[in-house]
Predict the structure of WD repeat domain, phosphoinositide interacting 1.
Amino acid sequence: METGDVGPGLCCASFNQDSTSLAVGTKTGYRLFSVTSVDKLDCIHESIETPDVYIVERLFSSSLVVVVSQSMPRRMNVYHFKKGTEICNYSYSNNILAVRLNRQSLVVCLEESIYIHNIKDMKLLKTLLNTPSNPSGLCALSISHSNSFLAYPGSDTIGEIIVYDANNLSTMTMIPAHDSPLAAITFSASGTKLASASERGTVIRVFSIPEGLRLFEFRRGMKRYVNISSLSFSPDAQFLCASSNTETVHIFKLEQHSPSGEEQAPSWSTYVGKMFTAASSYLPAQVSGMMSQDRAFATVRLQMAGQKNVCALATIQKLPRLLVASSDGQLFIYNIDPQDGGECTLVQKHRLFGSDKEWEETEKSKLMEPPQACQSYAATVAIPSSGPVTATLTGYSEDGGAKKGEVIPEHEFAAGPVCLDDETEFPPVSIR
């Protein structure tokens, strides 16, 4: 869900679990936006206390936000942003590459280990050590209460996916998804579907969870390999969008074709489809697989190419929309035709930081400067900090574990659990 390439002033961007909020990390701090209207983008919170924020994650529409800064890339801070209070912090044995949240768990991903915390009290429940090298911090956590699943790479050479039950703390299945290493994975809202793409970026596959059966296979393109940076299901899991470093965002429709010909009106396409299905059993796997792959249902032509972005499918003001947050600090909102698909229509774009004057100066400087290669997500967080980040960090542990850092006490919290403003969203966090 994040963008790792640093744009002018923008370090990262992520949508919350139901795509009603957008969080962005900047060189001066972070901002939280409400994405519930097309024409208006409300900045509901801005913090300038922590510079160079490269991870910022908000839990649904609650007051809980997790922040990681380049100045302390091994430390995670958990804040109650409406009260301006730190709930707690944890430090780890290596740089934090990703953080994922749902109503039960908080997951921290390092390059070769994963930590699962209970979000009620931030207690460390499980440490998955010696996981396959994962320099981009690729992982996904489902948001369903009953299907709280974690997915992460099972290999650094091929596209294997480990599906882990974050409620029962046990491995569920391993899915051999792709021949090349994984580039993107995401769960549907119910946790019953998992989409994946490999580093080649040509094929996107959707699997059933927990069985791991392949349900759909979509071809993004054959002409060139691309870096798919973002995958996202619609709330009803009927659509899946994919964005990459190209100018095109693809939207695929997940529709099950009728199992029997009798239910369909006879047509030339039905007849040809039957012929292909019958012939596929006699053809090489590569060829028969090509026959079963579907093209994009709808597409978007972005105004820029070569930039990393994050996309989400959401229902805003009762209509289906595609949201694209780009690393140059813009949010694009498109209309989707759920019946006919085709080219989506841009209805609004918003700036995520800076004044009009700052934005004009940035645009001018971009035109004058030669293009530069963007840093990878891992390279960004591996930048040596200017501050004294040493093994004396509070809570640092040499044995690969995570220890609770200093908790800043507040008189109002001392009597019991931290009461966040919207307790219907998730259980309150207890401070010990």
About this structure: The chain is about 10% helix and 40% strand. The longest strand covers residues 72-80.
